[in-house]
Structures are given as structure tokens and as C-alpha cells.
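Long-time lurker. I teach an intro course on protein structure, and each term I like to show students one example going from raw sequence to a predicted 3D structure in C-alpha cell notation. This year I'd like something fresh instead of my usual example. Would anyone be willing to generate the C-alpha cells for the chain below so I can use it in lecture? Attribution to the forum is fine with me.
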Amino acid sequence: MRRFLIITNTEKDTDFYVTNQIKEYLEEHHCEVRLCTDIYDEAYLKEDSEKKIEGEFEAAIVLGGDGTILRASRVLSRQEVPILGVNLGTVGFLAEIEPEFVMEAIQFVVEGNYQCEERMLLEGSIYHEDKLVFRSFALNEIVVSRSGFSRIIELKLTAGDELLDVYDSDGVIVSTPTGSTGYNLSAGGPIVSPKTSLILVTPILSHSLISRSIVLSSEEEIVIEVGRVRKTQLEEAVATFDGQMGQELSPLDRVVIKKARETVRLIHFGNVSFYEIVRNKLYGRKTLGSEGTRNREK
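-- Reply from a regular --
Happy to contribute to a lecture. Here you go:
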């Protein structure tokens, strides 16, 4: 590989110490490098925005936490650029590498000694009075939840022509396998391997004793319709994409969610399994990626 994009969260790498290490190494090995530090500009995420990351890159190195990687995945989703995540955050389920082993990982990437995992994306479209008003992607989840200080909301969920359920709750999480270890997990949903192709639906604080997660085929199209609980309430809910983009919803608005044609490619070194990652991250044993790159045969 010879053309790299480095995306840095300046709140995580405040003095650019890790960023400059990577940049200098790549340039010493005759690689082209472009640095992007303003990915948190909202303009990047708007479909009609002229602000895009221009250029052809063979890989993107993303320094930050899972939030930075989620944002980068949406910005780069149409460019099919493989992403190597460097964990400068806390848990970091999406980041393959811990900072103390980043230079070994960069060497492997330059040499082409890595694998790519395809991760499915969700595409969410919001309709108000049958008019499309918003569309975006999510690598982890799309959440429809109550807005502000509103009381519980009524959400009607259908898949195809079948009614799934009507929830009186704080909201519903629709997640990918990648997102199963995120908000879905904290709401009591199951953990599933990111290699699977399915969609998880998990209610948030449902006012029912029997509400459970529902596992659907990734080929299903899910429609969430906001009910009218109180006549005086104009905005019942909000739809958020990976916890970073929000769109207010009114009664009878519909959120249509399906598997996107685009995917995200995450660089992986192949010797640390997903299940080991879960054990390490959830139980605080910080070995992810680090031991993997250290012990990898060169």
C-alpha cells in the first residue's frame, strides 16, 4: 500500500504524538499521506454537502475511539476504503490496535500483511407525510427514542407485511451485528458475531413484562411508525444514527431501515477472535490487537 488517509480525533491525540509517528513512518517508506482532522464537521455527513474527503486512498488509519471510527465509516462508506482503527478511547470494540503497538501494525499494513472484514451497514430513511426528509447510514445502530421530557412513546414495527409488535417504551434499537456490543448490549440485547448477516431489534425500557429482542434476516425491511400518544405533543421522538446524528420525528412519521448496499471494511490481523475481543473488553483485560500484532509471524 502506498496511499494513506489519516483521520485524527484531535481531542484524543491532542499533541499529534501518535499521528506524527505514523505520518513520519509512512513518508519514510515513500507513501503518500493525507491528514484529516476536521471529520467532526457536520457538513461531512450531509448527503447534499459539497464537503467530502477527496482523493483515492488504499487505506484509512483512524485514531480515536469507537465514535471516531463510526463517523469515519459513514464518511468513507461509498469509497470502499479499508479502515484501521487505533484505540485512543476507552473500550474500543471497533479499534483493532492499541497505541503501544501501532507501529508494528502500520508495518504490516504497508507490507499488505493483513485481512479485511466486511461489516454490514444499515440505511435509514425518514418519511414525513410520505415525503423523504432524511437518509443516512449506521454501522452500529439506528435508534428511535422519546425526545426531550416526553413520556413513553408508541412505536409500531413491521417487517415486510408482518406486524412485529407495538411498543409502549422509551424507544427501539435496530442494530447490526457490529452494533450488538454497543447500545443493544446495554439494553439487554444479545451479542452476535460481526461475521453474521442479520438485524437486531431491541426495545428500550418497554412497558411490558415479555418484551425481548427480535433477530431478523438482513434481507428484511423494517418500518417504525411513531404513534400519537397525546394530541398536544407535536414531536414525539427522535431518530439517531450511531448516536451522532439526530432527526426529530412527529406522530405518524415513518423510519424505514434496511441493509445498505455499501459495507465497511475493517482491517484485521486475524489472530484475535471476536470472542476473545469481547472477553478482553468487557472484563478489562487489555490485550486486544496488542498481543495479536506482537505475536504475529512476520
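Some talking points for your students: The first helix runs from residue 17 to 28. The radius of gyration is 20 Å.
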